[in-house]
Design brief:
Layout lengths: L1 H29 L1 H38 L2 H28 L1 H8 L7 H28 L3 H23 L5 H26 L3 H25 L8 H23 L2 H18 L1
């Protein structure tokens, strides 16, 4: 227990260093207004990601239980489903918000700090990757041997912090810090997949086939739809609501057709039929 808590403390400590260190760097190189923009972006992300975090938290005890019971097949299936459907839930909320972020910020704030829009979009994209990372992290922690993973995690996040400082030092835009966070989060995902394969035989090929590639396909198709969707120069509440409904409906359809496997679509159809029949 002391060894586990010690290595976990190291990993959590370097995460805090990266998160708080990024805020310090943004303040040093961008000033208080950039910090204000970051604070607003973090509030938006916390509100949006709370919908997904509740879903993830509900699956964590089952992942740990399956690992303790030695039922690795059920553990693998639960991790993959948690990642995929967590990603879809966040995507359904994220896309219409990003499409109308300027209008939403205009309703919320009188004076919107510079960089706020870009920060929100980049942080939400970071949270999309977190949907893949969180269940895998639960699996690694559940099997108990975390020393090698925490060491690798320490080097990744230290590299993230150093790279952020270097980019700002040479005069790159402050958004580069968040872009680097996304890039290094992919490194964390790769490290998690590698350790999950070593520690509890996680099927990486199955992860890509059943989770990552369908999720990426849905994201690209829906992002293209949002890009080609016509937008007025002076949006109002009516156009915002209509665009939001169109994006949500299209995203749900893409998730159903592209993102779900056949058995998952049959399950959703059965649940919908039961709901409709119970009403009538």
């Amino acid at each position: 227990m002391f060894a586990f808590s010690g290595w976990a403390f190291l990993g959590n400590g370097v995460v805090v260093l990266k998160e708080q260190g990024s805020s310090v760097l943004l303040n040093l190189f961008g000033g208080p207004m950039v910090n204000a923009a970051q604070g607003i972006a973090m509030q938006v992300n916390a509100a949006v990601y709370s919908f997904v975090s509740n879903f993830m938290i509900a699956s964590n005890p089952q992942i740990t239980k399956n690992c303790a019971a030695g039922d690795l097949n059920s553990m693998h299936s639960l991790i993959i489903r948690s990642e995929k459907f967590g990603f879809f839930i966040l995507l359904i909320i994220l896309l219409p918000l990003c499409a109308g972020i300027d209008y939403v910020l205009g309703l919320w704030l009188v004076d919107v700090p510079a960089h706020t829009t870009n920060f929100i979009v980049l942080i939400l994209l970071y949270s999309l990757i977190e949907c893949f990372v969180s269940p895998l992290t639960t699996g690694v922690l559940a099997q108990g041997k975390i020393k090698s993973f925490e060491i690798v995690l320490t080097f990744i996040y230290l590299g993230n912090f150093i790279a952020s400082y270097a980019c700002l030092k040479i005069g790159m835009v402050v958004e580069s810090v968040f872009v680097l966070n996304i890039i290094f989060k992919f490194f964390v995902l790769v490290a998690l997949l590698w350790h999950s394969r070593l520690k509890y035989a996680f099927p990486i090929v199955r992860f890509f086939r059943e989770c990552f590639l369908p999720s990426l396909s849905v994201f690209l198709v829906c992002a293209l739809f949002v890009y080609v969707l016509p937008e007025r120069e002076t949006p109002n509440l009516g156009t915002f609501v209509m665009r939001t409904l169109a994006i949500v409906i299209f995203t749900c359809a893409a998730v159903f057709v592209i993102g779900m496997a056949k058995r998952e679509r049959l399950y959703v159809k059965r649940i919908l039929k039961e709901k409709v029949s119970s009403k009538f």
